[in-house]
Design goal:
By secondary structure, the chain is mainly alpha-helical. It has one domain. Helix content is 55%, strand content 0%. Helix 3 runs parallel beside helix 8 and helix 4 runs antiparallel to helix 8.
Amino acid sequence: MDSAKFWQMIELIDREALHQGDDRGSVEPLRQALAACEPEAICRFADRLAQVLYDLDGLEYSDASGANALSAEGFLYARCYVVALGRNHYEAVRSDPTLMPQSLEQWCEPLLYAAGEAWENAVGANEPWTYHAPVNYQTGSNRAQWE
């Protein structure tokens, strides 16, 4: 999935629900759209998601993220929130890490599961989601940005 299509899919996220703290509900339109895709497209979406999360994994972003940086998982979920807000916000944060979320309420953990859940809906339970990202997006994996 190319970058433009990835961000087009991200635009399906219900930002009003996200801002109200319903991160699970906010991702539901994206999950439904992914479930209608071919399995290969779901994997390519997951590849692109892993890459954009990896690109935000760094000390400068962590230091700027306020309360979310108190744990590795919190920082990952904060990075998901940045992505969930769309391409323009993501690119703004990449340019200015001080725009990282400042609150524990600003995260979007369910974004991590949207592709896997869509896969299960698309292909059924007989073919489990065994996807492995091309890059590790877990906190601290982008070593070049943690030095």
